[in-house]
Amino acid sequence: MLKPEKRPFLIKSFNLLSDSLGLNGDLNFDKLVRKSRKKTGLSELGTDFNDQALKILLKSINEEARLNPFGKLMIREKLIGQLENRLWATHWFNKHPEILEEEVLPIVLITGLQRTGTTKMQRLLSDLSGARGLMSWEALYPAPIKNSNESRRRIGRTLRNEKAIKWISPLFQEIHPIHADKPEEDILLLDVHFMSSSSEAIMHVPSYAAWLDNQHHTEAYEYEKKLLLLLQWQKSGKYWVLKSPHHLEFLDQFTIVFPDTKIVWMHRSIEHCIPSFLSMLYFSRCMFSDNVNQDAIKNHWLRKLAAMLHSGVKFRKDFPDKIIDVSFSDFMENEKLILSDIIAQMPCIAENLHKSKDNINERIYKSKHMYNLKDWDLDVPGLKSQFSEYVELISRLEISNEIHE
Known about the structure:
405 residues, alpha/beta, Rossmann fold, globular, single chain
């Protein structure tokens, strides 16, 4: 069994004091909206604001997540920040309607199960000439604050977030390094529409997750499209490099909204990527709760991962020309060769590549994250049986066996 990190003294004291004074109340929809409007001085959340999604999420948090006071404070500020993003985005859409009249750049989308090298691939491809990467500070705060050319405040906020994560959970920062000036997952843009799997990753919110499973996600991607256009308005490029495992479950809907998309699917043996991801989830949830149940994480996410893979495999059968398959082992062994192969298959990259400038052999930080199947009462035969459809796929693709940890 895994053990949570020791909490900083100030957080333990805050939790104790808040409980004793009864300050750990429920999160309230109206109060969050009022607070975000007060902080921005704006009122319009947009005609496409999905208030139902936020209300269902709040109900699930209040009734199921068992957050400690400091965790609830962090989630409260996170949700207010997402509402602020909507308010500022709506402000710019109203002030500059020409933003939404443009076309979204072609997209290179990196996906696959979590812990399969997607982050490293995203950062390397984002460094190439012509690429429009999504920096962490942009993903967290896509809309300028007050001035159209503003970035300083958003970068400053992201740097403070980065320092806070390092202080709250050094181990989580070790597992998934967060840097303000590095590319980050575009799932953070979906968070602004309150329809993404990030909430069920960092909290126990099964009723929200069940509701989310039954929704059509095109509307969330339509809102992401608006935010990408807002970001293009601030800084353009030749093509987007986006990344999130979340999209693996919804590639059919993603490509409806973004038809000019080429997908890089990262593959890794399930006996490595799944326990690594479950471990990351555990330490992520421990930042917000003192009651993190490993069985609840395992049961929920094994089902979720199976659904993601099933959807991804089906999309791959229907649209094989959309997919470029990449082995994690091969990528770790020879990233230059793998990147060269990807570039050759993507005209949007190749035609903008300046070989004299681009270094496609850059080494990215390598996590020392330790994980074990036994921590989750899992074994290789059981996993291969549960994920047999995907195991068969990577066998057909002749994906290399794991070499590096």
